[in-house]
Write a structure and sequence with these properties.
The structure holds 2 protein chains of 2 kinds. By secondary structure, chain A is α/β, with parallel strands linked by helices. Chain A is built from 17 helices and 9 strands. Chain B is mainly beta. Classes of the chains: A alpha/beta, B mainly beta.
Amino acid sequence: MKRIDCLFVFHFHLPYIYHYNAKYFEESWYYQNLANSYIPFLMMMEELSNASLAPSIVVSISPSLYNMMENEVMSERFISYLDNIFSLIEEERKINSLNPKIQAILDVYENKYLKVAQYFEKYSGDIITPFKFLKSQGLIEIITTPLTYSIIPLLTLKESINMQITGAVKDFKRCFLVDVNGLFLPECGWIDDVEPFLLRNSIKYIFLDERSVEEVNPYNSYILPSGVRVFFRNYLSFDFLFGQNGIVSNPYYREFYRDIGYERDKDYLKKYTGCDFNVPTGIKYHRITDVSLDLKDKDIYDWEAAMNCVNNDSERFLDFIVNTCVKNENNSLFVSIFNAEIFGDKWFEGIDFLKNFFIKIRQKRYPLNFVLPSNYINLNSPKSVVNPTISSWSDNGFFDKWLNEKSDFIYPLIHEISKKFIIVASKYKNIRPTHEAQRILKQLVREILLTQSSDWAVMISNNVHREYAINRILKHYQNSLRLIDYLLKGYNNSEEIDLMEKELPLFPDIDWKDFLSVSKI
Amino acid sequence: MIWLLTPKTILDENYCVCMLRNANTVFVFWKFSDYYLSLFENKNIPSEIRIKLINEENKILADLPSIYSKSVLHIEVPTHAKKVKIDIYCFENGIEKILCSSNVVNLASERDFKKDYNFYNEKN
């Protein structure tokens, strides 16, 4: 049968959650995902590469995430995080010494985390290097997102769009030492205003939701009027894996929401989690059993049974892709986009599933050919020109998820500080700012960019870590106003700026001039 | 060192911004200048303002009352509009006076979008 070109995108993103001198539970999301998803993903790719079975895939890493990966303090804290997990596993072994099933599960956790620790040590805590290595081997194409993952259609000023995109392109080059060819627009959020900035930054391709253009066929690639190639996400693959009754709801897979962090005494857990309240630990003993069951009624997890399911489910997914493409008349391209954090963390078996999936393609000679976008667009013409409408891949294709009665207070604040920055910074367009003013301008841009993170609006809308999100927005807003005031009134004490820079050591080479007037665009 | 000579209040003007929320709803926020805020607060002019939703043909699709201090509003848009903007009015000496106009927002029709089902988000 005809070969199917597969374009798989694994999207890595977390908001910037580093805290210099305060302990926040939210920072542990980074360590949790590093241990459960990011490092296992890299390990999987290296293992497949060594066996000449690695696919060519796209890896999208947001600037806020890779800036955390570069953070040496976070690397040290990750080692402490792993130490705490090992200590907790040891303690759980004592508590469950007479339960062989729990001991078997703890064996699985201990082996996994040992491998993660060894991998981390192999690269001396530098997780960017293995991504670069895989890229140099031609196995992955690395792309990025706007600087702080803002939903572009919800930015009220073109200057903000320019800062988010141009800043991302420049920071990517700083970190990965090459130009970026593709841009992952957060949540496939599209508005016409983006196009000139893609062109200006030599972006060759983007990804959009298939529903943003009427009558588009997601099995083909298209082109914007500017010449930027568009790949459309195939929703069916997402639905097959993660939809209602999707593969991830297999009753033998590990239950994510039942964690010993909610079942053990807080004082027992505190020395491992560092928290005075119940938080998830990553140690979970139960399987899904039935999605309708209460958590307390779930059965004990069986790793081997889960791996048998992985073997079957990976083949089901392969058959699904082949059958889907065969049904489609123009069955040339299958584009799937996945949030990387799901594999290994939320879906415990996810990395094993992927490994199985990629191995089976070769073993069973499935007609799937993994392509990298930059190669693909050189060899394949687009089907036609498209003009996508304002859209996203979220609820009903619009923006209620981020803009609603709970979160609407965010946008006037962002607009106010962005507009004020443009007014104040414009005065430095033709005069050289002093060293102190430069520092303030750069720090001010960082603070404004962080108010623009779409993650806060999601947390507020979903009432998940809501107080943390509100505090983050207000803190960056207040810092912005203060820095604007310093620029207006003059400033000659750098201690406060020192502290602000230590609290936000990201985008070290940020160019504040990218946030100025773009009236000619 | 070169510093700006005089600190002053920046962005001291009336403005409003319109954003698309979904196929049927736009969101508007506004801010008034210190001058107009003092007129409202000192009751020199009525606190009521009018929010007018205007289409591409300059036709008023909706004329909604609000209070100057509310600062945000979600407005349902009639489905036949292609583009909309917002004009905000106050009453000065009994006469309607425009305070600010927003940007123009292109609307998009709802096109058989399916709600993404995310197994993990459902639990949240």
